Amino acid sequence: MLIDTSAWIEYFMGTREGEKVRDVVESDRVLYTSPVIISEVLSKSIRTDGLEKGKERADFIAERCVVVPIDEEMGLLAGKIHGEMKARDKSFGMIDAIILATARRKKIKVLTKDRHFEGLEEAVMLE
To answer: Measuring CA to CA, how many Å separate 93 from each of 103, 124, 127?
Structure first.
């Protein structure tokens, strides 16, 4: 399973949805992440809790998860996904496309609160 940025934020904030994420994080499941998720969590954490906390969170994610690199194949798949999804939803971003490409390449689900993933077979929505 891949934990999306929105789910990690809920986890670190300790929200009700974050408790569901905690159950997954603290399980023995193999978890995956993308460098863009680490970047987004770091950025959000710097803005809300400072650089030190942001680095601590980024390090935790990198240690807990298998980091899936962004290579040429991933770039091509993300570009295809972005082109298709952007035609349907103008707010669908390239980072979401990279996250979805990571899930599809690894044939795993994405645990997320991000509405851009609603209705996708890869999505496990936090509610």
So the answer is: 16, 19, 22
Domains and CATH numbers, the chain: 2-121 (3.40.50.1010)
58 Rama class: left (phi>0) / alpha (psi -120 to 50) / beta? alpha
Cα 96 from Cα 116, distance rounded (Å): 8
- In terms of pTM, does the model score above 0.85? yes
Phi–psi pair at 39, nearest 5 degrees? -60, -45
Q: DSSP state, 114?
A: -
pLDDT at 127 over 90: no
For residue 23, the tally of other CB atoms under 10 A from its CB is 10
Q: Crossing angle of helices 35-49/51-64, nearest 10°?
A: 150
